[in-house]
């Protein structure tokens, strides 16, 4: 099997500067097809810049990047046909209903039977009960799920999620995590940027740590753990975190809580 057939994203020597500020200083990584790749780093590390380059919104100063074998500079149209981008803020029309948002995007893609596609996605993302409600009444988690659903209208093989849980409450974060896991389970390649360690740990098959414009570590969670010295075993009483308590009380991830979220009409 050739390298191209198993590699969805290939990045080599990527550099980008804004005047005197060097944001990317020679970034290298590969992403396997059908995997979840987490780009982990603090604010200003260059995560969004990488996503913009890979999605053809920004040209690199040096280096190369390919998506499914297509160069992001010389074959940008092919790249755009192969990807979907969900930014840090949900790009949904709050005046329209959830279903109308999906039908609108299907029409923009000139897809036949947009209503059926919309209904299928509403069911897939557990939004059927809220389909006829205006998006302005949706919670943060529901808006994010709708935003991701809109990104999947054209069934892209590669999806970029730029800090998809930014600003969400713990329960909504879990909803988005479940959505990402479902995407990966169906063979979609996902590049996820985040600054939350637990998010990368929960979702990623492979994790790259971006620091000051360079990848300083890259591997599976098990491989990254091996970079640390052997741990010393100590027996201590572990107290539940506030997040543990919160999720236990509200029953995050259960069908009952999801149904309540859809029908309550509350704002985030």
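Sequence proposed for the structure above (268 residues):
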């Amino acid at each position: 099997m050739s390298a191209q057939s198993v590699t969805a994203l290939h990045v080599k020597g990527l550099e980008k500067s804004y005047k005197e500020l060097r944001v990317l200083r020679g970034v290298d990584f590969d992403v396997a097809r059908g995997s979840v790749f987490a780009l982990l780093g603090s604010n200003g590390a260059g995560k969004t810049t990488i996503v913009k380059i890979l999605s053809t919104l920004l040209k690199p100063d040096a280096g190369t990047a390919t998506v499914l074998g297509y160069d992001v500079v010389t074959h940008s149209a092919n790249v755009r046909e192969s990807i979907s981008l969900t930014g840090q803020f949900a790009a949904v029309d709050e005046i329209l209903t959830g279903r109308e948002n999906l039908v609108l995007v299907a029409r923009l893609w000139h897809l036949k039977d947009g209503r059926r596609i919309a209904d299928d996605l509403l069911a897939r993302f557990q939004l059927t009960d809220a389909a006829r409600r205006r998006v302005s009444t949706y919670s943060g988690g529901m808006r994010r799920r709708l935003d991701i659903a809109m990104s999947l209208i054209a069934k892209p093989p590669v999806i970029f999620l730029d800090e998809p849980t930014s600003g969400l409450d713990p329960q909504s974060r879990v909803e988005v995590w479940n959505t990402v896991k479902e995407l990966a389970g169906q063979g979609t390649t996902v590049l996820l940027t985040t600054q939350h360690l637990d998010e990368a740990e929960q979702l990623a098959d492979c994790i790259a740590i971006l620091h000051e414009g360079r990848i300083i570590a890259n591997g599976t969670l098990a491989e990254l753990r091996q970079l640390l010295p052997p741990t010393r075993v100590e027996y201590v009483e572990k107290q539940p975190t506030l997040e543990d308590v919160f999720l236990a009380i509200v029953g995050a991830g259960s069908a009952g809580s999801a149904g309540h979220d859809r029908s309550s009409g509350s704002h985030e």
